[in-house]
Amino acid sequence: MSNFNKVILIGRLTRDPELRYTPKGTAVGRISLAVNRTWRDQETNTSKEEVTFVEVDAWGKQAETIAQYVKKGRPLLVEGRLKLDSWEDKNTKEKKSRLGVVLESFQFLDAGQGRGGEGGGGGGFDSASTSSSRPYSTPGAPAAPSSGRPGAEAMPPEDDDVPF
Description:
By secondary structure, this protein is mostly beta strands. It has helices spanning 60-69, 127-130, and strands at residues 7-13, 18-21, 27-40, 47-59, 75-88, 95-108. Helix content is 9%, strand content 40%.
């Protein structure tokens, strides 16, 4: 039996991205996405909505780019993998866990007409170039190597290096 771990989400940032660095200098970014689901209740014939909040960790240049160009409320498409983090609370000694997403690629999405580049920050990222069907790449940088593994060029460091 083979395994497959892939997540694709489109949502809006619930807060500005957090950007920190490991002791070795690797950028680590954390964002929180609100992903909405709307459906019609068959019994009451009313529209219903649920919101799922997802924590996403980004590494390296991708983390720095997200922190530079997106802010709270902006839409973002994220592709990644699920990861379960487990730890023991230092105060209560209680075991805790968190299911999150490790970002492998992303796309900026157009925030809507008439918003005038809000939060864009320049750098050549406009709605035409950021809502394309291609995954993120740094302007002027060579294309990512095709190793067959998405995100292989930005492998996260060991857990004890993570500043969160």
